[in-house]
Amino acid sequence: MPPSCCGYLSQYTHHHLVAFLLTFFSYVLLHASRKTFSNVKVSISAQWTPSVQNDSAPAFSPGQTWEDNHLFADEKQATLFLGALDSIFLFSYAVGLYFSGVVGDRMNLRYVLCFGLCGSAAVEFVFGTLTEWLHIYNVYLYCSLWVLNGLLQSTVWPCVVAVMGNWFGKTGRGFVFGLWSACASVGNILGAFLASSVLKYGYEYAFLVTSVVQFAGGVVVFFGLLTSPKEVGLSLEAETGLGPVETDTDSHKPLMSDEEDEVYSGGHHSDQQPDEPPSESPQAVSFLQAFCLPGVLPYSLAYACLKLVNYSFFFWLPFYLSNNFGWKEAEADRLSVWYDVGGIIGGTLQGLISDFMGKRAPVLAMSLVLAMGALVGYSHSPNDQVINAALLATTGFFIGGPSNMISSAISADLGRQEAVRGNQEALATVTGIVDGTGSIGAAGGQYLVSLIESKLGWMCVFYFFIVMTGGSILFITPLIVKEVRAMWRDRRALQRQL
């Protein structure tokens, strides 16, 4: 039986808490900057187009009409370009994830994480603030900066998951990672607050505030983050009851594995002497080796479908609420927060349930089945903000929760499984593969959502989301069957013992 929630939480030290908080707020700040760009699109679009666009306006010569900051003839063209920037960012972010995971397994995670945070903050400052202050407006410059921003931001997620995987073993990983993976949703809320608080002074100040805060966070991470218990001489066996840190035996055991016969006695494993001494430095696996690890491909494909739905809510929800119900933009922004609230609660509770069950896939499958029903219910939401908020939180619970689990706890399970046990490291590489594949799905999905909405309407968009959610279940079906059979065998064995 897994230990109780309070039991394994009480075994952690203040070093674990510091690692948890620093990695948590690292990604909070990163997501806050992404949300800032989404929240200031209207202001950017207005700045990039002529301020006078009506029949009563006097005729301007081309030189007067196309001033330095007038990149586009109207706001429609500017909006299309902003949408293209979203796709450019997501595709470059996806490509970067495949490489940054490999880099993270071969270099000091603290250096890579700090480089990504500070570098991304600098690019965002140049993109949103410096170009406006200096009145430099150029489409190719914006595209280049946003490609670079996607590549830099891609270094953060694999590194923070790897650090968390180093500090927190399998025991309680679902709950701890479920709580920790709320960082993206908290970042969305923080980004909306920071942007709205200074937007009245100009969109460039929204970028200024978030980039400065993110850069400061990178500096704090550089001087304060410990990437592994080894750096302070801690043993997982002594501090958390999860086994010696040198071999990291427990954290290499995934919850998907059928070979979970560890015997806990006073928070310790049964004594097992290794045949060989631990290697001096872990050897990172190659990208192809990590891609071929059991479970990586099905979870990557499932996450591609699920992240498409999750990020479509991230990018399109405020627009949908304003467009479909006629609510004010500020009201739509506030209401969209309930989706993130549902995701926070869902990821934490579902992670805790998977800990007590000892399996992840059955919990995911049940949540995704209920998510399909929640999508049907939300697509028929009445024009009432209270009911809409309740349905939105429910949808976020069943979609955002599984999304958080796959990208964090399950990625850590996959990178610490039996196939790479010993002198090899694959956690950051596996995380990059899973999240990179998911980001490719999300990037392609944003174009499909706009295309379906313009041709067929919002109801068909929700049908599309339901199909994609079903696709997530389909890809992990073999794992579901395997883990359910393992649970049934364990139950029968327990009954025979009784």
How would you sum up this structure in a few lines?
With 498 residues, the chain is mainly α.
Write the layout of secondary structure elements.
Blueprint: H1 5-9, H2 14-39, H3 41-47, H4 62-65, H5 75-104, H6 109-133, H7 139-153, H8 156-167, H9 173-180, H10 183-198, H11 203-224, H12 236-239, E1 283-284, H13 287-291, H14 296-325, H15 329-357, H16 361-379, H17 385-415, E2 424-425, H18 427-456, H19 458-475, H20 477-497
Parallel strand pairs: 1-2
Structural write-up:
The chain has 498 residues and is mainly α. Helices cover 72% and strands 1% of the residues. It contains 20 helices and two strands. The chain has a two-stranded parallel ribbon with strand order 1-2. Helix 5 packs across helix 8, helix 10 (183-198) runs antiparallel to helix 15 and helix 17 (385-415) runs antiparallel to helix 18. The chain starts with a helix and ends with a helix.
